[in-house]
Amino acid sequence: MKRLRLCPNIITFNTLITALVKYPSTHSLFLCNELFNDALKLGLCPTTITINILIKGYCLAYKYKDANQLLDRMSEFGCVPDNVSYNTILDGLCEKGRLNEVRDLLLDMKGKGLMPNRNTYNILVHGYCKIGWLKDAAQIVELMTQNNTLPDVWTYNMLIGGLCNEGRIDDAIRIRDEMVGLKLLPDVKTYNTLINGCLDNKRSSEAFDLLEEMNQKGIKCNEITYNTLIKGYCKEGKMDKAREVLQKMEESGLCPDCVSYNTLISAYCKAGNLPEVLRIMKRIGEKGLKMDNFSLNTLLHILCQERKLDEAYELLSVAPTRGYLVDAVSYGTLITGYFRCADTEKALKLWDEMEEREVIPTIVTYNIIIGGLCKSGKTQQAIAKLNELLEKGIVPDEITYNTIIHGYCWEGNIEKAFQFHNKMVENSFKPDVYTCNILLRGLSREGMLEKAIKLFNTWIDKGKTTDVVTYNTLITALCKDQRLDDALGLVAEMEEKNIQRDKYTHNAIVGALTDAGRLKEAEEFMTDRERPSEQRLQMDDREHELRVDELDSSSIAYSQQIDELCAEGRYKDAMLIYAQVTQRGIDLQKSTYFTLIKGLIKRRKSISKTG
DNA sequence: ATAGGGTTAG
């Protein structure tokens, strides 16, 4: 256009940057900035919409600082921020759980005379639901009603999502019924949320009932419904069923997307089925889809799992040059990997690198670093990180508190563990079954069995839930203290409560019975151990798992050939050989699969090269 | 041409 001496108007420009901003990558923001400066030079006057689009771009790339700066500089360009400008940033901050900044920005907004509208309220409801503050979410709904901004389907859907996340499916369904009474009709998103909630809480038959129900009501399934079902099957290890859903999705005229494929990739990664991972990644490319952050992070995860930390770090380093957005999940994955390999130093170094790159950590990232520090015996540094996240207005979750309590117990500081526990209960901490188990274990380890039993009884009296770990912890401690009959009493209690015993229960009891010379009982207990629920969940595709000893010589030769081609950067040729190998049904060496997979990740074209 | 809900990764 410029070459033709045509001057784009502001609408053309806005359209252009909207497209760029929609798919955030390393280059798109940079390009947007360049274009923006270019537009200014051409004498174009940006409008509030222009700036709002740019703000959205920064938010999508998690650059909230830049977004805020742009907001402050709007007057320089002769425009004023509106509700959209604020809502965009508010939503981004809610997404990351940065509640302090949310509060500050809301105040700033009101100071400018802008009143929160329905979108603003819904953003806040969403933010609270995400961190499980359902009471606060309900308060916002109350506020909406007071301000004559009645909650809509969006509001209700988010409340339903919040309840599902807390496992409160029945309450969620009740709210759904409430909607119908208010003439707010549940839509496909309501159903997707509920179906997802059921599947996550092991209530899959209800999930399928809901699916049936939405069909009857004429609400059409969409990609997300199918992706949710795929995830459900993947979680149960039913890969064949997951593939069936993918098939059905295509038959119904819907296109599997990145989410569908990433879900499968992640499941196959967990099953160690690298050939399948590679096959799907290849498929993504053939379909004209691009691998995204999720694909990248999944690969980083499996590299870390295989303890290939150097390779993972290399991938993390080159990813931005390939257009991928390296984010808090990418860093969290590697930091977890380093801690697992007991390389605390590198883990901490990576945390610093993350901060230097202005990648914003979430509560999960903080939980990782806090857990790692605790495990390395640096509980004080862990506490420092806790204070740091609190200062940022990030809300800790149960995992954060449990990790620190565990840390104190780990270093044998039971007293501090309880002090911390009590102090946090005064705040917002709701101890869960993990908390109970951690404290029981800590007390037992320090030989304070009586206190453990007391804690256990109080816990039960409060009507709190227990699990097999709770019982195992006490049973093991009782056995060690030669209180075998008390331990057997707990086994009976488990039976009553329908808590299935596992190999830990078994080992403790059989060992103690044997030591006590009660061999007959030990034998009885042993024959009793094969219970249906104890049988391991089998992946459908476990037989495909690579086994080094099954590789024949041709496989090794092919693997070598492919490795060499990849080392020369000749991925295309390597993929050709790979195609031949697959046709002949030969498996490659594990590391060769990794090499090819990394090749596919690296091949992602960046926007700057195509554009 | 701009803002809010449901699916995938640590």
UniProtKB/TrEMBL annotation:
UniProt xrefs under InterPro entries: PPR_P_subfamily, PPR_rpt, TPR-like_helical_dom_sf
Entry-linked SUPFAM superfamilies: HCP-like
Domain of life: Eukaryota
Keywords for the protein's UniProt record, in alphabetical order: Repeat
NCBIfam families tied to this protein: PPR
Similarity comment text for this entry: Belongs to the PPR family. P subfamily.
Protein name listed in UniProt: Pentatricopeptide repeat-containing protein
